[in-house]
Design brief:
This protein is of the alpha+beta class. It is 47% helix and 18% strand.
C-alpha cells in the first residue's frame, strides 16, 4: 500500500511541469501569480508539503484547510503551513491573486532565530485568513514583485540568501499586520518547554499512523509520559494524547472523503487492531461512524 494515500504536492512536483509562469529556487521556493495550472485535484483534499502565502487581489475563493472551510475575499491573505491538507473548493470567474510557496527546509533555514515564530504558527493554524487594509495589501504586492525580480536573477550567486532576507522582512510585516487580531501577549525567547513541544509535534507528524501511545513519544524524547503531557498542555492548551488523536482523526476523515479505500483498509493503514476498534475510536471523536461520515 502507498505511504500516503492522500495526494501529496510539493514544490518539486510543480517544478517538473516546467511551467513558464512560475519561478523557483531549486525545490525550496516558488513564486507565481496564477494558481490555475497547479496540479491540485479539484474537489479532493491534497497534502501540501510547503507553506503557502496567497493574497486575493480580485474576486473570491473558497478553500478547506484540514477539512475546515474558509472564504478568501478580495484584499485578504491566506497562509497555510507545511503538511496541512488543502482542498480547492472553488473560485469566482474573476478571481486573481499572488502566491508564494516555501518548503519546510527553507523555512527552517530562514526563520531559525525568530522568537515569535512558534506563537505565530499557532495563530496561523487557527486563523489562516487575514483581512488586509489598503496599505497592507500594497505592501504584500510590493514584496511579491520585488521578490520575483530577485528570484529571476539566475546569474546572481546570492539570490537564495537575498530571498531569505526578503522573506524574513515580509514575515515581520505580516506578523505586524496580524498583531491587531492576535491576543496581546508579551513575546519571549523560546523556552525549553516550547522546544520540547516542537520536537513532540515533529515526532507525532512523522509517526502518528503507526503510533498513538503517549509513552512511545515520551520515550523518543527521553521523558515520562506524565511530564510530556504536562509540558504539551502548558505550551499548547491540549494534552499530548489530544494532539495525537487530532492527527489520526484528521487523516481518517480525509481518507474517507478523498479516497475509495474501504473502512477496513483505512483501519489497517492507520494501524488499528481491527475495523471495529477503529470505528469506535472514530465515532468517539467525530460523533458518527466512518460509514455515516462518508455518506454525509
Amino acid at each position: 500500500m502507498e505511504n500516503d494515500i492522500i495526494p501529496q504536492i510539493d514544490i518539486s512536483c510543480v517544478q517538473e511541469l516546467k511551467l513558464r509562469e512560475i519561478d523557483f529556487i531549486d525545490n525550496d521556493f516558488a513564486i507565481f501569480d496564477d494558481a490555475s495550472e497547479i496540479p491540485m485535484y479539484d474537489s479532493y483534499p491534497n497534502r501540501i508539503n510547503a507553506a503557502i502565502l496567497a493574497v486575493c487581489l480580485k474576486g473570491h475563493a473558497k478553500v478547506a484547510i484540514n477539512l475546515k472551510e474558509y472564504d478568501l475575499e478580495t484584499s485578504s491573505l491566506l497562509m497555510t503551513l507545511p503538511d496541512q491538507i488543502i482542498q480547492n473548493i472553488g473560485a469566482s470567474d474573476d478571481y486573481s491573486g499572488i502566491f508564494i510557496a516555501v518548503s519546510p527546509q527553507f523555512i527552517d533555514r530562514t526563520f531559525t532565530q525568530m522568537k515569535e515564530l512558534l506563537s505565530f504558527m499557532f495563530y496561523i493554524k487557527e486563523h489562516p485568513c487575514v483581512p488586509l487594509n489598503e496599505s497592507e495589501l500594497n505592501c504584500m504586492i510590493e514584496y511579491h514583485s520585488f521578490l520575483w525580480k530577485k528570484v529571476k536573477m539566475k546569474d546572481n550567486i546570492y539570490r537564495r540568501e537575498i530571498a531569505k532576507g526578503i522573506l524574513s522582512a515580509m514575515f515581520y510585516d505580516i506578523h505586524n499586520f496580524c498583531r491587531k487580531h492576535m491576543p496581546m501577549e508579551g513575546y519571549h525567547p523560546k523556552t525549553r518547554k516550547e522546544e520540547l513541544f516542537e520536537k513532540f509535534m515533529h515526532e507525532v507528524s512523522s509517526s502518528y499512523r503507526m503510533e498513538r501511545s503517549v509513552t512511545f513519544y515520551a520515550n523518543k524524547l527521553c521523558l515520562t509520559p506524565k511530564h510530556l503531557s504536562g509540558v504539551v498542555k502548558e505550551v499548547s492548551g491540549k494534552t499530548a494524547g489530544e494532539w495525537i488523536d487530532d492527527f489520526v482523526i484528521l487523516e481518517a476523515r480525509a481518507l474517507l472523503k478523498s479516497s475509495e479505500m474501504s473502512v477496513q483498509e483505512i483501519a489497517e493503514y492507520l494501524h488499528f487492531a481491527n475495523q471495529s476498534f477503529f470505528g469506535k475510536y472514530f465515532k468517539h471523536y467525530v460523533g458518527m461512524s466512518p460509514k455515516e461520515y462518508r455518506r454525509s
